[in-house]
Specification:
This protein is α+β, with helices and mostly antiparallel strands. It has one domain: Glutaredoxin (3-Layer(aba) Sandwich), CATH 3.40.30. The chain is built from four helices and four strands, in the order ααβαβββα. It has a four-stranded mixed sheet with strand order 2-1-3-4, covered by helices on one side. Strand 3 and strand 4 form a beta hairpin.
């Protein structure tokens, strides 16, 4: 691999990016409620590159948060593509799901 990296250095970042996309599916984490910031910090996983966080403590009209606020609760929605898992209040459940996905390199 070192020889290839030396001969074609511009190609290696692209391959690394592709490998990361295959190994770690892209997820959107929408957190709505009074503890949104705290919960997002609890969920952030070191080395998991494809997590996009959105949300806030107050209801707004962003497309990803519209209709997702529940009075007095902080709800977490984990979405991939156009599908979302059932909402939860548990940061541990979200982290557990992300960490127990099938083998990152399966199918490559």
């Amino acid at each position: 691999m070192n020889d290839i990296a030396l001969q074609y250095p511009a190609a290696c970042p692209n391959w690394a990016s592709l490998l990361a996309d295959k190994a770690f599916p892209f997820y959107t984490v929408v957190i709505c409620g009074p503890e949104a910031v705290k919960r997002s910090q609890e969920i952030r996983l070191p080395g998991y590159p494809n997590l996009f966080f959105c949300g806030g403590a107050r209801e707004d009209n962003l497309p990803l948060t519209t209709g997702r606020f529940v009075s007095g609760k902080t709800m977490i929605y984990l979405c991939s593509g156009s599908e979302c898992r059932l909402p939860t209040e548990s940061t541990e459940a979200v982290k557990h799901f992300l960490l127990t996905l099938s083998s990152p390199l399966q199918g490559i």
